[in-house]
Specification:
The protein contains eight helices and 15 strands.
């Protein structure tokens, strides 16, 4: 019989391994692997301006199309290996949610559809054991309960920042309605970003709302705003961080100075927007994109010259975690600190498995003109 403590270690390992992959992949050479060309060269005009007569959906803003360099910029000393090589990209204009999807918005979706998130669903042992070490005994049913990862502040300094299990805890009963586990609630937090959202949950919301998740290129282009060659959306001065984003300031993960006024999540729009009018593109919660995480994808794009509307690799590929299906998430969170990730930078990215749900992971959506036209034709 597997003990409660052993089982939690198994689950924690599964859900946090994607964090470890980012650090390790920055230090190892990757074996090339074919990536299908799921993009088109820039030979058609870029859609920049909002066409006349098209109405901006409520809660969204038009992001004018244009060109930019995706990936780490030359003077970013904090850039990780998988943010390179930088490569030229162009994207058509699109609508994007002004803020991260909030608890109130997600509740409206759940009330209308009776949707149950992955963190709330019964755990199926036959599926879970496929991701555990061979011959792992089945834990007691009292342990096989729905839950999610919750951040736990440490009582003292942590010398080894590679061991993420020191500040992540598998909490039975943690989900979007109970972000800290049983006894916690989102009452009075309608304007906070919804969290503990797995990829499937985000897709379900998009299907209901008539939107979709952004591509990684769209997300990064929108994050940069009109400042296309800066490390942060506001420029290159990190001293402005506490005024611009909700991150971890102080000694992570034991002491947060709350220089930005929050230790955990903040209501959306609590900090200044970027030059496109988007809020929380740095910090607060990580955001899903639709792209598969593939360590060789940037290299392939670099070889192709400027690419128009790239949609990511056809398949995921991470040699450090080959069995896991991972998507790219962007933006960083309230836990990002300069000592180990600094993911409030425009080019920062992370690989996360499809079934991961965590206290610092949410999303926002986009709507493209072709989707608008499709909706009109179906009316």
């Amino acid at each position: 019989m597997v003990s409660n403590k052993q089982y939690k270690r198994y689950r924690l390992k599964l859900l946090t391994i994607t964090f470890l992959v980012i650090i390790i992949s920055c230090k190892q050479e990757q074996k090339p692997k074919e990536v299908k060309e799921t993009y088109s060269k820039t030979h058609t005009p870029i859609i920049k301006d909002l066409p006349e007569g098209v109405i901006t959906p409520k809660g969204m803003i038009w992001i004018p199309g244009g060109e930019f360099t995706q990936g780490a910029i030359p003077n970013d000393s904090m850039a990780m290996k998988h943010e390179n090589p930088a490569h030229p990209v162009s994207v058509d204009g699109f609508f994007m949610d002004i803020t991260e999807v909030t608890n109130a918005q997600f509740k409206k979706f759940v009330d209308a559809t009776n949707y149950i998130t992955i963190a709330e669903r019964e755990i199926i042992w036959e599926e879970m054991k496929k991701q555990l070490p061979p011959n792992t005994p089945k834990p007691h049913d009292s342990i096989l309960q729905p839950g999610s990862l919750v951040f736990k502040k440490t009582k003292e300094s942590v010398p080894n920042l590679y061991d993420y299990s020191q500040w992540w805890s598998w909490k039975i009963g943690a989900n979007w309605k109970h972000p800290l586990g049983p006894g916690s609630s989102i009452k009075g937090k309608d304007t906070y970003p919804v969290v503990h959202i797995a990829f499937e949950d985000a897709l379900a919301y998009c299907n209901w709302a008539g939107t979709r998740l952004p591509t990684e290129a769209e997300w990064e282009y929108a994050s940069k705003g009109k400042n296309k060659n800066t490390i942060f959306f506001w420029g290159n001065d990190s001293s402005d961080l506490s005024k611009r984003a909700n991150t971890w300031e102080g000694e992570f993960p034991s002491q947060n100075t709350k220089a930005d006024s929050y230790e955990n999540k903040a209501p959306v729009g609590s900090y200044p927007s970027n030059s496109f009018g988007l809020y929380d593109m740095a910090g607060n919660v990580w955001e899903w994109t639709q792209d598969w995480y593939n360590v060789n994808y940037y290299t392939l794009l670099k070889k192709q010259g400027q690419i128009h509307n790239p949609k990511g690799a056809e398949k995921p590929y991470n040699p450090n975690n080959p069995a896991m299906q991972e998507k790219v998430i962007k933006g960083g969170s309230f836990l990002c600190n300069v000592s180990y990730c600094a993911s409030y930078r425009n080019s920062a990215r992370m690989a996360t498995s499809l079934d991961s749900s965590m206290e610092h992971l949410g999303f926002r959506t986009v709507l493209t003109l072709d989707m608008v036209n499709t909706q009109k034709n179906s009316e």
